[in-house]
Amino acid sequence: MLRTPAGLSVYLKRLGTLPLSTGVRKTSLAGRQQSVVKNSSHATLIKPILGPDALSISNHSSVSGKLEALQRPPVIIGIDPDSNGALAVIEVQSYPQPGAQVIEDVVVRLHDNPCEVLQATKQRKRRQADSTAIASIVRSLAAERCSSDSQDARVVLEMPQPNRLNGKWSWYACGHSFGVWHGALTSQGFKVETVTSRAWKIDLQLNGKGKEGSRLLAIRLFPTAADLLKRKKDHGRAEAMLIAAWALGLRIQPDSGDVTVVPPVETQEASLDDLLSEEDADDTDTVDS
After folding, report:
1. For the segment 119-172, what is each residue's pLDDT rounded down to a tens digit?
2. In Å, how far are 54, 124, 230 from 114, measured between CA atoms?
3. Which residues contact 103 (CB under 8 A, 6 or more apart)?
4. Is 183 helix (H, G, I), strand (E, B) or coil?
5. How far apart are CA 161 and CA 219, in angstroms?
6. Pairing mode, if any, of strands 86-92 and 75-80?
C-alpha cells in the first residue's frame, strides 16, 4: 500500500531511495542529489537536478496528517501508456466537493513513460516502452504499498486505440506499451482497471479538443502542478493526471463546464468490439511512429 507523506522530509527520503527512471534507458537517477524549489502557491516541487526522474507536487493547505475514513481509495494511479505518456499517482487528503473548480489537498507524483530507442532500419530509429524501467517503477510502487498500512491504490490504465490509418509500427507500439504496463502491474499484485480514451474524455468534455485541451484542463484542476505541465509536450503527464481524476469521480458538465463528483464505479475491461467501434472517434490517441 502507498503511504501518504506527512511532510517534505518524507518526500525527500522516499524519492531519494526509490530506483525510478524516465526517458531512455540508462537514465536512472536514484540516489542523486535532489533540488527543492518552492513556488508562490505554497506547493513544493521536488525535481532531480539532472532530469525529471520522479516529479512531485503537493498542496498542504489543510493536511491533517491522517486520512479520514473514506469509501474511495485515497491513492489513485492513472496511466497513459502512450510513448509520450506518463504515470500519475494522486494521494488524496480530502475529496473535492461538487462544484469545486480545483482539486485541493492532494499530492501528485509523476513518472514520464520510460522509452528505449531501437534502430529499426539504417535510416530510421523507433521508440518503444522500456520494459525494464517500467518494471522498476512498478516494483517501487509495490514496495510502498507493502510497507504501508493505508488503503490500497486504485489503478486505471488507458486502453490504446490506434487509428486504423496508422502504420504497422504504431499498432505494435500501442499494444506493446499497454501490455508491458499491464503485465508489470498485475505481476506485483495490483488490480488493473482499463478505460478507453474516448470514455474518459467524453466524461471530461475533452473529445475534439486535442492534446492541448487535456493539458489546459489538468492545469485548471491541479493548479499547484502547473509547473509540471507548462510545455505543450507535457500533454502525456496531463492525461495521466486526468485519468486519475476521472477515476476519482470527477466529471465536467457539458453546458456550464462545472465540476461534479460522482460515486466511483469500477470500470469494465474494454473488449475488442469496444475498441473497433471507437477507432473512428475524434481525437483518437496514437503512438509516435
Report:
1. 777 788 888 899 999 999 999 999 887 766 555 789 999 998 777 777 788 888
2. 12, 20, 20
3. 96, 221, 222, 245, 248, 250
4. helix
5. 25
6. antiparallel
Please count the structural domains in the chain: 1
Residue 283 lies in a domain: no
Q: Does 54 fall in a domain?
A: yes
Total residue length of the chain: 289
Position 254 in a domain: yes
DSSP 8-state assignment for residue 130: -
Q: CB of 55 within 8 A of CB of 46?
A: yes
Q: Are 88 and 107 in contact (CB under 8 A)?
A: no
In tens, the pLDDT along 176-195 reads: 999 999 999 999 999 999 99
The answer to the question of residue 3 being in a domain is no
Q: What is the CATH number of the domain that holds 156?
A: 3.30.420.10
Question: At 119, which amino acid appears?
Answer: Q
Copy the grid coordinates of residue 38.
518552492
Question: HSE-up of 204 (CA within 13 Å, CB side)?
Answer: 30
Burial 45-74 (b: 16+ CB within 10 A, else e): bbbbeeebbbbbbbbbeebeeebeeeebbb
Predicted structure pTM score: 0.69
Domain of 167 in residue numbering reads as 8-278
Q: Are strands 192-196 and 153-159 parallel, antiparallel or unpaired?
A: parallel
Q: Give the E-state strand segments of 69-187 in sequence order.
A: 75-80, 86-92, 106-112, 115-119, 125-129, 153-159
Say which amino acid occupies 121: T
